[in-house]
Amino acid sequence: MKHIEMILLCLAVLLCLTACCKDRNLVVLLPEPGGTTGQILVSNQGGSQLLQEPNMATTILSAQSAPKKPEPMGEQEIQETFGEALVALPSPPIHFILYFKTDTTEITNESRKLLAKVLPAIADHESIDVSVVGHTDRFGTRAYNYQLALERALLVQKMLLALGINPQFIEVTSHGEDNPLIQTADEVREPRNRRVEVVVR
Amino acid sequence: MKKFLGFIVAACLLAPVAAQALDTAVGSIKMVRGTSAIMRDMAAVETKNGTRIFRNDILKTGSDGSMSIVFRDDTLLALGPNSEFAIKEFLFSPAEGKLSIVTRLLRGTAVCVTGIIGKLSPQSVRFETPVANIGVRGTRFAVKVENPAE
Fold first, then answer.
1. Which residues of A touch B97 (CB under 8 A)?
2. What are the start and end residues of each CATH 3.30.1330.60 domain in chain A?
3. Contacts of residue B140 in chain A, CB cutoff 8 Å?
4. Does residue A3 belong to the interface with chain B, where contact is any CB pair within 8 Å?
5. What is the pLDDT of residue A102?
6. CA-CA distances (angstroms) from residue B150 to A23, A102, B62?
7. Contacting residues for A141 by C-beta, under 8 A, at least 6 apart
8. Which residue positions in chain B have pLDDT lower than 70?
9. Which residues in chain B are closer than 8 Å to A176, comparing Cβ atoms?
10. A21 touches chain B (CB under 8 A)
11. Does any CB of chain A come closer than 8 Å to the CB of residue B16?
12. Radius of gyration (Cα) for chain B, nearest Å?
């Protein structure tokens, strides 16, 4: 019974597309590749609905009427509604994580090997938009860490330019201690957070 | 040593200015299919792989169009045909405590995977539509907004 109702709803939606009749809007939560699912809260003047299971969907008739109780949305319906967008979903950016030898301006040997993979990845990924982002751990003041991370990001930028990357592709920023790989309390040393990430979009 | 430090300090003072000009781009287009455009300051902008996108841009696709976008915080976005999508706000400077991504699907279909802003500050991710707003906690979702009657 519910299944048939869902199909009728989808048909109604598809018909609406051509007839341009009343608003029929929907939000569906999709599973992530790793198998986990997040949560989304859909809300308006009328009320709200929480989606926390994969393929659960809520329809919203208008800005004033509350989103409908979540119902499962079949794979086929998802394909029919979102097929073109799903195919167009881009692959996630590639992150190269580089580390420096302690208290120097040199990157480790392992990182040097990784750095050599950046330009081929840029070509492969057909990217012309690359970020070089410096990070530190939470040991030291935030201001000091911001500057240190920026310094190191600039050094990596120089290395990439020396390797032949087009300067127009690169943007350099610092996230200081505020975007750690591993969460720690303040003033805790964590070498894995002291990194420069090259992000290839 | 002092000279070296002096150089680094000078470079640091200059670098944020240089970085700033590039920093205003919020992401870039990865792929464009069919009829698609970016509307910026009321004019259509050439749209292809690598085209940078900025706050206040409106992304549009025609009946045969689709678009792939990657934001600077790794948020992934795909637009299906007959869609219109506005970028209202994008702040990604964790060191300054500035984290925000606010977008609006005006019509059509979109599939979205949230990125680092969603991980660092889930409450800073808002996806709007004409009928409801979506608060997102680091996840993957799809939205359809019906074409308003013309």
1. 178
2. 94-200
3. 29-32, 37-38
4. no
5. 79
6. 12, 64, 16
7. none
8. 1-23, 149-150
9. 94-95
10. yes
11. yes
12. 18
Mean pLDDT of each 10-residue bin along chain A, 201 residues long: 48 36 76 82 96 94 94 95 95 95 86 95 92 94 94 96 93 95 93 95 92
> Tell me, what's the pLDDT at B147?
79
Contact A176, B95 (CB under 8 A): yes
**What pLDDT score was predicted for residue A11?**
44
Q: Is B22 on the interface with A (CB under 8 A)?
A: yes
Chain B contact for A51, CB < 8 A? yes
pLDDT the model gives residue A139: 93
Q: How many residues does chain A have?
A: 201
The answer to whether B53 and B87 have CB atoms below 8 angstroms apart is yes
Q: Any idea which fold A94-200 has?
A: 60s Ribosomal Protein L30; Chain: A; (3.30.1330)
Write down the pTM of the prediction.
0.84
Distance from CA of A54 to the nearest CA of B (A): 9
Closest-approach residue (CA) in chain A for B26? A129
Contacts of B110 in chain A (CB under 8 A): 85
Q: Provide the terminal-to-terminal Cα distance of chain A, rounded to the nearest Å.
A: 45
pLDDT value of position A35 = 73
Task: Single out the residue of A137, A141, A131, A140 nearest to residue A178, CA to CA.
Answer: A137
What pLDDT is recorded for position B60?
96
